[in-house]
Automatic annotation (TrEMBL):
This is Beta-lactamase-related domain-containing protein. SUPFAM superfamilies: beta-lactamase/transpeptidase-like (SSF56601). The lineage of its organism: Bacteria, Bacillati, Actinomycetota, Actinomycetes, Propionibacteriales. InterPro entries: Beta-lactam-related, Beta-lactam/transpept-like, Diverse_Enzym_Activities. Residues 73-359 form the Beta-lactamase-related domain.
Length: 386
């Protein structure tokens, strides 16, 4: 991987450089550009960040770990400064990487801002905002249940099975279809909040509710967040034939801008210290709301390393470490105590479930090691007084 340590802004990449991270995603997807209107380059202070990763029955050097997990980019930020940045050729700082389901964690930020502004109550039933869902499996489901993916609707998220509803939903974005018409057909499966099921339909309904509450489409709301975060590059988000965004998986951005998204999960402030999310929201997003969502309690086919909070994945029960997770290794890990952020994009094989699982496990182990290695040294007594 090549290493970049430039401090200036990077040239905009063309949309053809999107790194698609799911077999269902095609470069021909319709998209909307999200402008970077308040660009502020993060300071760069490169220093060695090298780790040994124990996983898959052996030690991996840093370079071996990058290769074993098909890494396409890695950015590590400590106290708002980029301390490591590397890319696999031909990618670079201006490449837009499709975050896949990391997009869901961005949606959580938007929902948190709507809740903080008082226009959305998490205990609202879905149909209070989207009456088109009366009579569907989503009638009577609270917004909070969408955030925790405990809606109880009849849904199977299996992108390896073309008969699963998830590929049909994604197909609406590749063929210019109507994704919301499909959501209206989703039926009831079990009582809300009794069990968890990974569910992109929940994310799409959550965005529908957010849109009605704020009066802003996903791309428009995201443009405001992009401005407030100081993101330096335009992003792009996939949309269906009616202009509805794939809020559950269609956002592509540079790795540095993905890092800014993750930095907001530390304490709800941007790099200037401006508060963008309430502290209570950030704390809630980083913790599992039910015992069956705690780290290690999710189905092992999903992960044994994380739990599920408010569209973020807690890595411990204290809410110290949290991650945004997208298919084929799109990961943005945060240590909320030290402020260290590590963003890793990847492109590992997806069709083989065992390869997918081992690469994800090894990625999580390596990200923990990176967060440890990049943590600032403990403050001295003098620094604590200051």
């Amino acid at each position: 991987m090549s290493t970049t340590s430039s401090t200036g802004s990077v040239a905009r990449s063309s949309l053809s450089t999107l790194r698609f991270t799911d077999p269902q995603h095609e470069p021909g997807w319709r998209h909307v550009v999200v402008p970077a209107s308040g660009a502020r380059a993060l300071p760069v202070a490169p220093r060695p960040v090298s780790v040994s990763v124990a996983g898959a029955g052996r030690w991996h050097t840093f370079e071996e770990w990058l290769a074993a997990t098909w890494t396409t980019s890695l950015v590590v930020v400590e106290r708002g400064r980029v301390v490591h940045e590397s890319y696999a050729d031909p990618a670079g700082p201006g490449t837009l990487f499709l975050g896949a389901s990391m997009t869901k964690s961005v949606l959580a930020h938007l929902v948190g801002r709507a809740a903080g502004a008082g226009v959305l109550d998490l205990d609202d039933p879905v149909e209070r905002h989207v009456d088109e869902l009366v009579g569907s499996g989503y009638e009577g489901v609270r917004v909070r249940s969408l955030l925790t993916m405990t809606s109880g609707v009849d849904w199977v998220e299996d992108h390896r099975d073309p008969a699963s509803p998830a590929p049909r939903l994604l197909g609406a974005f590749g063929a210019g279809g109507d994704s919301r018409a499909l959501l209206r057909l989703v039926g009831r499966g079990s009582a809300p909040d009794d069990q968890w099921s990974y569910n992109t339909a929940d994310s799409q309904v959550l965005d529908w509710v957010r849109e009605r509450a704020t009066g802003r489409a996903y791309a428009d709301d995201l443009a405001l967040l992009w401005r407030d975060l100081g993101c330096t590059d335009d992003a792009a988000v996939a949309c269906d034939g009616h202009g509805v965004a794939l809020a559950g998986g269609g956002l592509a951005a540079t790795t540095r801008d993905w890092a800014r998204v993750a930095m907001l999960a530390v304490d709800g402030t941007n790099d200037l210290g401006t508060r963008l999310l309430d502290v209570a929201w950030v704390e809630a997003a980083a913790r599992a709301p039910y015992p069956f969502l705690a780290p290690g309690r999710l189905p092992s086919t999903i992960t044994t390393h994380a739990g599920f909070g408010l569209h973020w994945w807690p890595l411990d029960e204290e809410g110290r470490r949290v991650v945004a997770d997208g298919s084929r290794g799109q990961l943005a890990a945060v240590d909320r105590r030290t402020g260290v952020v590590a963003v890793k994009t990847s492109l590992w094989p997806y069709d083989d479930a065992l390869v997918d699982r081992q690469a994800r496990d090894l990625s999580y182990l390596g990200l923990h090691a990176l967060l440890d290695a990049a943590a600032p040294p403990p403050a001295t007594t003098k620094e604590q007084r200051q």
